[in-house]
Design brief:
two-stranded antiparallel sheet; 13 helices; 10-stranded mixed beta sheet; single chain; about 400 residues; 14 strands
Length: about 400
């Protein structure tokens, strides 16, 4: 029998709050974190909106010398990990550090460093490139720096599956504990890609919203007038523990992670498979892994990107898979508030379902004004809803056809 895995700590750095409490309050109040992009001159860009971190100072967590050697995506991972470790009440002196590991992913990695050092190369030549460039840009450095910070010597790896990254990282950490390869894992996702090249690349794909005159309402998942997603940044970090390990140290348990399902669309580089076939399979596998029936799912935190095909296909996938139960399941997209955090999205949204299980409040899908006949579920429009939730699901789907679904249960 697999070992039981529980959530004992969370850290969130997001466009709607730089702490778990602020993040959760914003979600339940339906507060938008999107606005005009202030990170660079967007005059020549079709999309001028972004979901940026606000009033965040990494210097509160990391000293100045270390900061210069970390790309922002690593800074975010380290800061959110500090919050999660504190939230979990971990005493590092009481842990077996050989049984403590890290799995943190990113969809894109050190794009800030790539762009800034390309400017150095062009202006001053290769001899002036920072010797820290490669460590700053490689995606595994999020996991690496966090493990060094806490001395965690157990399993250490990284995940890159585009927008499914956060869920895959948490799911992989879940499996590591189940297999008795570790007792505690720091896991999640991190992203900092609101840069000229990052935004320009997504603009070229016509994936971003161009509702520039209404920046706070441009992320509108499932709404018929949706026109693309909004780039977000931040990090979500989760502390997973084997149940008896958590109980032994007297940890507060926020939820139990019970199911993980993953699949591939095997269809197209960026477009989801018709009727969300891969999404259906990942959700079905996650429920099978959790040992739950379709009528036991009380809430789904949707991938819900605010793009035409994702929202339609995810809605169809839920409708087909859950059949007659689909109308009774609240399905909301918190990306309507946070924007799309790419590789960090799944981890931030997993923290969301844990908070839903704990507090019995379902965050809304804001900016929902015009129903789309092809998106016909209960999207919890515009206002949070109080409802006891025992089982919640988090969906994440990424370019390349990657699908990852997590199921959590209220701990009893």
């Amino acid at each position: 029998m697999s070992r039981r895995v529980v959530v004992t700590g969370m850290g969130v750095l997001s466009p709607v709050g730089n702490t778990l409490e602020a993040f959760w309050n914003s979600l339940t109040e339906g507060r938008s974190g999107t606005g005009l992009n202030t990170q660079f001159d967007t005059e020549k860009f079709s999309s001028k909106v972004a979901a940026e971190l606000k009033d965040f100072d990494p210097g509160e967590f990391i000293d100045a010398k270390e900061l210069r050697r970390m790309d922002p995506f690593v800074q975010y991972a380290v800061c959110a990990s500090d919050m999660a470790v504190k939230h979990a009440g971990l005493d590092l002196n009481q842990l077996d550090l050989d049984r403590a590991g890290v799995v943190i992913g990113s969809g894109i990695g050190g794009l800030h460093s790539v762009e800034s050092q390309k400017e150095v190369l062009d202006a001053k030549g290769p001899r002036r490139i920072s010797p820290f460039l490669i460590p700053m840009l490689i995606i595994n450095m999020g996991s690496g720096m966090v493990s060094m910070r806490y001395g965690f010597r157990g399993p250490n790896t990284s995940v890159t599956t585009a927008c499914a990254t956060g869920n895959h990282a948490i799911g992989d950490a879940f499996r590591i504990i189940q297999r008795d390869e570790a007792d505690i894992m720091i896991t999640g996702g991190t992203e900092a890609s609101i840069t000229p090249l990052g935004v320009g690349g997504f603009c070229a794909m016509k994936a971003l919203s161009t509702r520039n005159d209404e920046p706070e309402s441009c992320s509108r998942p499932f709404d018929k007038t949706r026109d693309g997603f909004v780039m977000g940044e931040g990090s979500g970090i989760i502390i997973l523990e084997e149940l008896e390990h958590a109980k032994k140290r007297g940890a507060e348990i926020y939820a139990e992670l019970v199911g993980y399902g993953m699949s591939a669309d095997a269809f197209h580089m960026t477009m989801p498979a018709p009727e969300g076939r891969g999404a259906q399979e990942a959700m079905n596998l996650a429920m099978k892994d959790a040992g739950i029936a379709k009528d036991e799912v009380d809430y789904i935190n949707a991938h819900g990107t605010s793009t035409e095909y994702n929202d339609k296909n995810e809605s169809q996938a839920i409708r087909i898979l859950f059949n007659s139960n689909a109308d009774s399941i609240p399905v909301s997209s918190t990306k309507s508030m946070t924007g799309h955090l790419l590789g960090a999205a799944g981890a931030v949204e997993f923290a969301t379902i844990v908070m839903v299980l704990k507090h019995g409040i379902i965050p809304p899908t804001i900016n929902y004004e015009t129903p789309d006949p092809e998106c016909d579920l209960d999207y919890v429009p515009n206002t949070a809803r109080e409802k006891p939730v025992k089982v919640a699901m988090s969906n994440s789907f990424g370019f390349g056809g990657h699908n990852a679904v997590l199921v959590a249960r209220r701990f009893e």
